[in-house]
Each structure stands twice: as C-alpha cells, then as structure tokens.
Amino acid sequence: MSATAAATRLRDRLTTASMVGPALLLFVVMLVVPVCLSVYLSLTDWNGYSANPALVGLRNYFDLARSEEAIRAGWVTLVIAGVGTILLSVLGLGFALLVNGASRLNSIFRVVLFYPHVLSALVVGFLWSAVLGTSGVVNGFLTTRGAEVLPFLSNPTWALATLIGVLVWAGFGVNVVLYLAGLQTISKDLLEAARIDGASPRQTFLNVTLPALAPVVTVNLVLSLVSLLKTYDLVVSLTGGGPAGSTQTAAYLILWDSFHNNALGFGSAQSVVLMLVTGGLALTVARLRSRADQGVKG
Amino acid sequence: MSRSVRRSLGVVLGAAILVGAASCGGGGFEGEGSSGGSTGTVRMLVNITPNLTKGYWEELVKPFEDANPGVDVKIEAPTGQGVKDTLPQLLAAGNAPDVVETLMADKTLAPQMLELTDQAWTKDTPLAEQAALDGKVYTVGVGQQAQSLVFYNKDAFAKAGITAPPKTLDEMTAAMAKLKAAGYLPLQTAGDYVTGLQLLQLSDPSIASAHPDWYQKVAGKELTVGKTMQPLLERYQSWIKNGYVDKNALGLDDVNAQTNFLSGKSAMYIMGSWFVRTAEEAKPKFDLSVFPAPTETGQPSPGPQGVTMAAPYMVLKSTQQRDLSLKLVQYLVTDQKAVQSQLAQDGNFRKGFTEGLTPLGQEVQAILDQAPKHVAQGEGYGATTLPQGFNGEWNKAVQSLYTGKSAQDVATRIDSWMGSKS
C-alpha cells in the first residue's frame, strides 16, 4: 500500500470517527450506562443511601415474581397498553380520514385534535379529575338534578376505564398526525383507478388505503404500545394509583417502591423486567406487522 | 459488522459497565465531612408547600445570616416529588446538602446523618428522645403535630341534637346516625392518602390504651396489625354501609374533601393539627371546633394522643460545614422567634409557645396538654417503627373496604404484607 493510499484511508477513518463518535458517546452515556447500572442495581439491596449496597443475586427477581402487588400492576399495565393501543390506532385513523381533505375547517380540526397532546400529562390528569371526580363538574351536574354520582375515579373498574379514556384523549393527536402524513403519500392515481374500476369507498379503504398505510400502522402501534407501557404521570395526577391500588401501573409502582419505600434494588429489578417486556412486545408487534405487510405485497 | 468494530463496541460496553458499577458500588457519597470554618455556605434541603414557600424559608434564616456575617444559608427545594426522593438523588450524585428538613432518621437514614446526642441544646426540643434510635439522637424538631383530632361543625351537632362531642367510638357512631338524619354527611373522608391516615389517627388513642407497647409487640410478633385493627375496620365498614361516609369518597382528593367539610356539607373531618391553618383561612360560616379522637368503650377519655415531630431537621454526616450546620439547626429549633414563626406557619404546636394562638389553635394545644401520653403514629419513629412502606400499604388496604373487601380481608392483607417484610 502506498503512503498516499494509507493516508487517505486514515483520513477516511478519522472522518468517520468524528461523525460517529459524538453520537456513539451520547448513546453510551445516555443509554448504555443507565441500563447497565439498572441491571447492576437490580442485583443489590440498595436503599438509595448506603454507599456499598450488598449484592443479593437474583433475590429481587424472585421477590418480584412473588409480589402480588407487582403482578397486579403488571396486568393493569398490559390492559392499559393493549386496550389503549387499539383505541389510539382506530380513533387516530378514523379522525385522520375525517380531516384528510385540504380545507380551512380541516386545518382547525387538526389543531383541535392535536391540542391535548401539547398539554403536560400532569395537567391533563388534574384537569380531568376536576371534571370526573366525585365533586367534579359532571357529578356536580348530576347531583343538582337528583341523579346518582358516577364513580369515575372511585370504583376500580371505572377508574381503570377512565384512565385509559384520558390516556387516549391525550395521546391520539400524534396518531392522527402520523396517519395524515401516511394518507398524503398515497398516490392519487391509485385512488382514482380504484374509483374508475367501480370500487366502493369501503373497498377502496380496505384494498388501497389500508395496505398503503401499513408502515404507518406499524409505527403507530409500536409507539403507542411503548408509551402506554410506561404510563406514570397521568396516574399520579388522575388517580394516584387508587382506588385501593387498582390503577397502579408498573412504572408507578417502580417509582413508589424505589423512593417511597427506599427499595431501589427492587425497583431496578422491576425496571429491568419492564424494559425487557416492552422491548419484547414492541419487537413482536413490529415483526407481526412486517409479516402482514409482506403478505399484502406478496 | 466487522470484527474490529465488534471488538471496539465490546470495549466501550465493558468500560460503560465498569464505570456504572464503580459509580454506584464504589461509594463516594458517604464522606465523614469536616468541621468547616466560621464563614461559608450551608445548603439546606427543605419541604416546599403553599405555606412553606422558598421565600418563607429565606426570611426564616435571614436573622441567622445577619448574626453570622459571611454565612450564606442556601435554601434548596426538592427536585423530585419531595425531600424523600430528592435526597437519595443528591447523595448518589455526590451533591448532598448540609442540612435536611422534613425527614426523620430511621435505620436507613441514620448511617448518613450526624449524631447529635452530645449537643446539649437537643434535650429541650420536642420528641428528640422518643425519636432517638438506639438512644442516639439524629433528628431534632421545632414542635409537635397532634394527629388524633376530629374537627367538627358545632352547628351541625346542635341541629342533630348532639350536646357534647363523643368520647367513645360507640358514641361517635350514634352521633353519626343523628347527623345523617339531620341531613349532613357525618364524616368527611377522601381518596389519595387521606383514607388510611384518618383510620390510623382515629385508632391511635384506643390502641395505645389497650397496648401501650403496641409497636414492640408487633415487632416481636406477639400482636399483628390486622388482628388489632380488625374491630375498628369492622366499625368503619359499617359506617360505609350506613352511609356515614360517602361511598364515592375515593374519587375526592384532600383539597376537595376539606372544601366539602369547610363549606358545611359534612359534619366531621379527622385530620392532623396542620389542618388548623387551612380551616381558619377558609373562614367557615359555621362554628368550627375540635375534639380528641374517641376511645373504645371502657377506656379512659381522652386517650393518648398520636403525635409526630413538626419540622424535623438533620445534619448530614458528609457536610463540610459541620459547625455552621449545627449552629443553624440549633437556631432553627431553639430560637424563640424562629420557632414561633415555624409553629405559626404550618399549624404546629409546642409547650410554652402559646403566644398568638387562635381560638382553634388553643383548643388543639389544650388537647395536647390534657392527653395522658403522646404516642407514635403510623409508621412511627425511633424505636417504635413499623416496616417502611406501611402507611402506603395500609392506605390501599383500607380503601379496599370501599371496593367490596371485608374487614377480615383487609386484616389478612395487611398481616400478609407485614409478614413479607419481616
């Protein structure tokens, strides 16, 4: 190899390193280190204060498997994520189709639909608790008319349904925007061809629009699922995990155990399990969607 | 991916794990500190509430700064939800404050805190000895918060034909029936932390009368929480069934519950003495009064009063300003004006500091003075403690009475939880 060629190769490598390096450093510091730290802490009995936490092996994971509260929080989280993801996708697509046309009114509707997403989840929670709480606006209206109070936040089943409803209300604006972006990419020629071939609006939607939106559907499903599996702040401001712990999500319980009960080792074990479940579910959804997309293409 | 890239990534990952492990396992946030000089900055992490604003704290320490030229007391607000979750974060980041307010030493915290046993001035501070761990003082406070209080609407009682506040729980139940018949919600409660706290506050006098060393007996497994509490849980369940508390109360937060009581919709509200300030500021249109939590039939009344330490302070062992930190804490818990200010600001009480007490405050002070004994409450403090997390678990268990569980279910649940913590 000539000296010039070697110098060129070195320069190329340095250029590559200078471009990749900062991103890699950020990735390591912001993601790899915290994850490794969580895994390490999950094997200790760290209480948040002691300087030298003792290694306890897999004890935290065994405790987690035996914890009725953690198992209940896991189920609550899965219900929220499952039902919420379906609702977000269906409503997101429905509203995107409604406001897809280019008109001034549609622009206003788009802003209105996206607006809840701009609000902080904490604010959303306080807002809806003022509306749906026992002495909130709705129940105030009902009681002045002699009707029974509706237990939006005081009955375990109602409280879970209310939480999912508010999560969907606060989050579906993003789905609408993504679906709208997907709808803009569908070729007008294809839609025109379907119309000329005599396809009904339903047939056009099922055979042209939906297949074309497949990648957006995948993105929406994965994003919604991941975000709902981490539900925390809305629980804090809307239900406080109650009544009787019925709306405690995994993320809420992690924070509660870690900081209220000073069990950071146990909380870290829960974080690791939540991370693995989230990653596993997200990959499964993406994989299933990918197979479905390939089926459509094939 | 080429072999060299894989190797490089492996090295980076390995280094990251080592850095992570070293940063948390290697210590570094448990120093021994130093006495420091006569000037410098003392960092104090405090609780921030609508009453205890940052501005209030700064005003509170200003006379201390004026009396000690060159000393700057830096007030720090919690970065997390509160002091409890902020302190571990600061410790882990190697950025611990010098003084911390709000928390009390337990077996977890004590190793990080400076022992104050040899500081003579701690002897005259409220509950210092009761809160000591193995005879060592780590926490000193400004005053006491009475816990077992029932605030009530005197007008509602008069309308219901109740001539004197109930002294026993049976009398209280009978009064509830009369109040309901008179058109009032007899007892105001709420979801959030309120449900479980109220039942603990109500149970303190009866339990302390029946079992003066209840905490020790629970720790020694001679008694269980569930079995001791079951009669009260059964009584509470009957209150829910009879409509003496709102069956939808769990959908209320503490602020709305207080508003309901102070607007005259409900007749009684069980709460700690900090409620005095809130209640008086609301200027209720009825005659507001307070009585000590009733005891079980056959027990003397008033019973022992549940109390907690108000505005507790600790000095961190790692402080580099030990002398100044101690001087500051001494000022905060012994200076007449500083104590008076803190008592007034957050509805706290201390024997000998009755100046400026409102009529309702005087009633609370009288209850504290007349109580035959002051006892720990909830998770407790010092040697009388239940496992950490008890208050939260108890609250959830009590709330499940509203969701169809029986008193027996609640007792079993709490005993099962206690068993898992032993």
UniProtKB/TrEMBL annotation, chain A:
It comes from the Bacteria. Residues 74-285 form the ABC transmembrane type-1 domain. The keyword Transport applies. It is a multi-pass membrane protein. The chain crosses the membrane at residues 20-43, 73-99, 111-138, 158-183, 204-229, 263-286. Pfam families: BPD_transp_1. Its main location: membrane. SUPFAM superfamilies: MetI-like. GO terms for cellular component: plasma membrane. One of its GO terms (biological process) is transmembrane transport. Belongs to the binding-protein-dependent transport system permease family. This is Carbohydrate ABC transporter membrane protein 1 (CUT1 family). It comes from Kribbella amoyensis. The lineage of its organism: Bacteria, Bacillati, Actinomycetota, Actinomycetes, Propionibacteriales.
Automatic annotation (TrEMBL), chain B:
The keyword Transport applies. Keywords: Signal, Transport. PROSITE patterns: PROKAR_LIPOPROTEIN. Residues 1-24 form the signal peptide. Belongs to the bacterial solute-binding protein 1 family. PANTHER family: ARABINOSE-BINDING PROTEIN-RELATED, OSMOPROTECTIVE COMPOUNDS-BINDING PROTEIN GGTB. This is Carbohydrate ABC transporter substrate-binding protein (CUT1 family). It comes from Kribbella amoyensis.
